[in-house]
Fold each of these.
Amino acid sequence: MTEQARPAATTSVSSVCELVSVATGPAAPLAARPRGTGTPLSLPPTTEGGCAVVTGASSGIGTALAERLAARGYPLVVVARREDRLRALAERLTARHGVPVEVEAVDLGDRGGRRELAERLAEREVAVLCANAGFATYGELARLDAEREHLQVEVNVTAVHELTLAVLPGMVRRRRGAILITGSTAGNQPGPLNATYAASKAFANTFAESLHAELRGTGVSCTLLAPGPVRTEFAQVAELSKVDAVLPKRLSVSCERTADLALAALERGEGRVVPGLFAKLLATGGRHAPRALLGPLLRTAYRRVM
Ligand SMILES: NC(=O)c1ccc[n+]([C@@H]2O[C@H](COP(=O)([O-])OP(=O)(O)OC[C@H]3O[C@@H](n4cnc5c(N)ncnc54)[C@H](OP(=O)(O)O)[C@@H]3O)[C@@H](O)[C@H]2O)c1
């Protein structure tokens, strides 16, 4: 390091704090300080126009998010591969809540289809984006199907990135919008026998929390939904045959509860929501336990549910 560079490195903690407080302004008294980004009620009102986009709406958490957004009056765009399910959902939500629901039967792992979807969304007034679609694989990486591992990165990482990049400029221009990114507690920790998924969710977690901080003051918010176990088709898709036998039901939460907590957090402009006590314990353990301990522990745990 050069002599010139050194003074910055030796800046005192108090002067760093001063710089931070100059940059962010004086702290409001606790009672008056809104939770989250300081953008309370950042879920834009439906009266202002704009639609809500939910990826992975054909089952689980995505269906529950779509149902709740429709109940709040948002016109919806629902995205997944299983068109029959999306159409049935659209009919049900329109009949029940009187909102228009557009079906986008798109494979988010397919570059061309995904890009075209991103282009269509970039031209619309998107008020809410729930980037939720995702799946996991479990097993020794060297033995897993390489194509499916690539696909997992496309869906869990690239699609989240591309769709956010498509809608964010419009949201920032309008100074209005909310983004919910579904990460996972798995993204806080190493994931032996679940390496691609854990790494993909580390991206989702960090991306969402980075945007949350970056967007402060823009009128747009970004919230990370980082669930632990949720009762959906997730385990079945991941071929986790023993999970129901090993994991007591009370440790997982329902997708309805997950969606309720997620949208409440989005509304308050919070940075992160972790639904349920067990997931909070997992999140704390994953973030703070020594890596040398976590790796072997999680390897044993995942072996038991496979
Ligand atoms: N359930 C859990 O325990 C848990 C825990 C932590 C995080 N999560 C995360 O929560 C999110 C939702 O999962 P879930 O639990 O609700 O599972 P789920 O019931 O299996 O739903 C996954 C959704 O993602 C969609 N999807 C998967 N691959 C896709 C592709 N190539 N293109 C488009 N859509 C695709 C599926 O639709 P199609 O199959 O119709 O395409 C489905 O709608 C995921 O990101 C997952 O990683 C779940």
Note: The chain has one domain: 42-305.
Amino acid sequence: MLTLAEKIILTILVLSTFFLFFFPVIKRVLILARLQAAARFDSILKRFFYAFSRVLLQLCTLKNERPWTGVAHLLIFYGAITFDTMTINHVIEGYVDGFYLFGQSWPGRLFAASVDLFSITVLAGVSFFAVRRFVFRPRAYDTGAGDSALIYIFIFLAVSTFLLFNVFSVALHPGSRTGAFLSRFLAEKFLPATMSVPALERNLKLGYWLHALAVFSFISYVPHSKYFHLLAGPVNLFFRRSRPTGLMLPLNLETAENFGAERATDFSWKDGLDAMACVECGRCQDVCPAFQSGKALSPKMVILNLEKHLLAEYKNIRKDREKLPWLVPGVFTEDEIWACTTCGACLHVCPFDIEHPDKLLSLRQNLVLARGRFPAELRSFFHNLETYGNPWGFPPAHRTELLRELGVGVKTLGEYPEAEYLLWLGCFGTFDDRGRKIAGAMVRIMKAAGLKFAVLGAEERCCGDSARRLGNEYLFQTLALDNMKILAGTSLKGLITFCPHGYNVFKNDYPALLEVLGELSQEEKEKIRSLRVISHLELMTGLVDRKRLPLRKPEETGALSSFTVHDSCYYGRHNELLAEPRKVLRAVLGENLRELKNSKEHTFCCGAGGGLMWTEEKAGKRINHLRSEEIIKNGSRLVATSCPFCLTMLQDGLRDKDADEFRVMDVAEILAGALLNSGHRAERD
Ligand code: SF4
Ligand code: SF4
């Protein structure tokens, strides 16, 4: 179809497109190569199938936060695959006259029909996005408008010029592309029957070049824009974290060259890839409690600013780390870093599994460990943990004195070395009045089930969760080591927690920490690894399932018009304990569960996670007020929680809202309240 001169021009165009496409790709790969290592090469096949299924079935965008956006993506995605194939055909057709992939066989007819069909769906999808972005203008889309407009125009031009070319092609060669139903219809409807063959040929060539130019411009532009996610997104899904979302990787304090992220090159290549994979959809921002309550933090902007910085500092990243500016305050502000509750909502909704909290925690770590910068109110918190092993600065012996309030006959492990389970009271369960009530309920449940259990008493120290997520890795490791030394010396079957933060830290953080701790022997490490960590939700569900508890029936506990559940981030989202509280509550309260708007894995943080329980919430609205408003709207007067932090925050929030008729109780308290007075079972053998 093309003359020799035209073929040369086409070749130059193809090569220029290659260069324009791959230049930014190579630049980004070179940046990533200079960042820190990250272990993401395990379970390659599993990774492949995960990424493949997420992309091919578009599960990444078909998450239930934005169903219509997901459908529009689906329409465009399959259209893009078909058009990409068509582009290969288009280029070859320029060199080989009459070339058509699959010829006139049935796959060829199907292919021709698909391209026509997808030109309609792609235009529909792009129109949906254009209207959404430029007419409805949701806040989540407050960046990248120029990029989006250009890409919509390129896609529109690529599809319309393809139709133009195809219309003349079927008019000129009626026996070809027999499946192209739309092009044929347009040709019959709009082309004058009298149009001469030379005129058709001229127009065909014009259509050819217009389509080639539109497609090559689109391909060249993609990697220079936020649409780089088309390449980096699937790769990022492949390298997603395989560890639980609640697990923070330990810092080797003895060998680390830098503590946390001080400059760009302190981030890992996976952090860099995360930044390059962002599509700027704003889903993370929409669900972030810090952003919603008016704090300085937007997880989307954290990722975007990191990408901008990596690209801007390309030369220094490659050549001279010392010339790189500090990330704080150059790229990130302290206010945004200290606003994160580590709730994981951002990570959960991100279509490309971008890991926002890790970056914020790494920045916090650097501020605390290397620069001694943290909110003033944390000074006494860190001091108390360091000196007394609890946030309030109570002397350790006070833990034993408070034990008698938990019920008759609660023994320490020293008094009862035959105990099979250790009930970890935690700082709230020991020192906080409300927390002690939950601990008391747990004691009643475990006694009723006949479990052989004990508590640690004066030896127990804070699990270290808050210290760690507030950036004080050194303090965390000190506390963890003390606790681990004690645990390693026991012959327990399991450790039971009624705090999701303790649960997460024992189940996920401690075993990972063992990899870098030199102070423990292999035998001690094995002991800790083999210790089963059991959440009180799992324990109660097991006991209810196996009918190990003498319980009143729901109708005997007094009818409730409805009750609701507030899932904690660390039990619910990070460790997927979602069915358990519902099972226990249904057994005790019946079926009148009325879910909150943001429930289960979409739960909304109470505001206390990430150590923020111990900081002052100065900017914007209080996060617990937002959640309390949601509870008030739901209307259920009984709110079941499973975290002492959440309980405190929601109680305070509801009180501030003058909603005293709402009662917040731990699931354990509700279950213990349904125990028959018939006494405790004898300890089982
Ligand atoms: S972890 Fe929670 S608070 Fe932190 S950035 Fe993500 S959504 Fe926001
Ligand atoms: S980080 Fe993920 S959820 Fe947030 S804007 Fe980027 S792609 Fe969307």
Note: The chain has four domains: 4-238, 264-369, 378-541, 551-673.
